[in-house]
TrEMBL record:
Protein name: Precorrin-3B synthase
Record's keyword terms, sorted: 4Fe-4S, Heme, Iron, Iron-sulfur, Metal-binding, Oxidoreductase
Gene3D superfamilies: Sulfite Reductase Hemoprotein, domain 1, Sulfite Reductase Hemoprotein,Domain 2
Oxidoreductase recorded as keyword: yes
Keyword match Iron-sulfur: yes
Organism of provenance: Lentzea flava
Length: 326
């Protein structure tokens, strides 16, 4: 059982990293209008280091902030901070190539409208759609299927928004100090019993990454120069990539599935993280092109932050170099 609350940063409640304040901007469903995207880009340029970091939950991070007040004001004006009380629990990953943003928006609004759910941990996660169903959400929706801790226990729902709020309330009531539904003893069973099960075939949760292309470009090591893609509507994916309109200038991004950058990710590393034992991004760049199975994730310490879901080969920094974990 957890002995302390999670310390996930928010857009206003910053994490103090070695290179300054770190803000994590939740983007439920990943969709940003051109105007909203420009608000975030300019905030990174004017308030932070000028770089946007993409997370494995399809959120954005800005580093090097003096405080979160100005950023919070800009995000609130752009409609990207609808609830200060629920801000850190607004984690909804959606299948990026499906038409599901309206459902995501309804889920987000309903979760934020319930005062009880303001205390959900920053690790709380909802997935929407088949291609992201295997990303380990506390709850997931695939058509009428309600996944619990990444598993189809047979629960089927008619109103996905109401069912999700009900399930989240049940989790909050029973979780104690747990961060995830999977950590609650008997939690999945209790929620399954509450809803009941249907006599229907079970589905197997999957992860189907978006392949790089001119309209689904990847972001090398999840770090984007905030001067790029000005005035472009985007949709973030949990694979540190975007969906952009056809014809968008994607210079500097990964558009070739055969690119050596495809399938390589890394945590922040030095100098941004004081706990890191190495500059993992520089080491990853130097390693790039080495014949090796993919995907590969580079971690600066044993915490292994930012590790993608699924089967990933890891290079974890130690005091003696790197340990390869398969």
């Amino acid at each position: 059982m957890r002995s302390h609350p999670d310390a996930c940063p928010g857009a206003v409640e910053l994490h103090q990293a070695a290179d300054g304040g770190l803000a994590r901007i939740r983007v439920p469903g990943g969709s940003l209008s051109a105007a909203q995207w420009d608000v975030v880009r300019l905030a990174a340029l004017e308030l932070g280091t000028g770089v946007l970091e993409f997370t494995s939950r399809a959120n954005l991070q800005i580093r090097g902030l003096a405080d979160g007040l100005e950023l919070g004001a800009r995000l609130r004006a752009a409609g990207l901070l609808p609830s200060a009380t629920h801000e850190r629990m607004r984690n909804i990953i959606a299948a990026p190539l499906e038409s599901n943003q309206a459902l995501v928006n309804a889920l987000d609004a309903a979760l934020c409208a319930d005062p009880v759910l303001a205390s959900l941990p920053g690790r709380f996660l909802v997935t929407v759609g088949a291609s992201v169903s295997g990303l380990g959400g506390d709850f997931g929706l695939v058509d009428d299927v309600l996944l619990l801790a990444g598993t189809d226990t047979g629960v089927r729902v008619e109103d996905p928004v109401d069912a999700l709020v009900t399930a989240a309330r049940l989790f909050q009531e029973m979780r104690g100090s747990a961060w995830r539904l999977s950590e609650v003893d008997g939690g999945v069973r209790k929620i399954t019993e509450h809803f009941g099960v249907a006599d229907a075939p079970r589905i197997t949760p999957v992860v189907t990454p978006v392949a790089p292309s001119p309209v689904t470009p990847g972001v090398p090591l999840g770090r984007l120069d905030a001067r790029l893609l000005a005035g472009v509507p985007v949709r973030l994916t949990p694979w540190r990539s975007l969906v952009v309109p056809p014809g968008t200038d994607t210079t500097g991004l990964i558009t070739d599935p055969a690119s050596p950058w495809h399938g390589v990710s890394a945590c922040t590393g030095r100098p941004g993280c004081a706990k890191s034992l190495s500059d993992v991004r520089a080491d990853a760049r130097a390693w790039l092109g080495t014949p090796h199975a993919l995907p590969v994730h580079w971690s600066g310490c044993s915490r292994r932050c930012g590790r993608p879901q699924g089967d990933v080969i890891e290079f974890v920094a130690t005091s003696d170099g790197y340990e390869e974990i398969r």
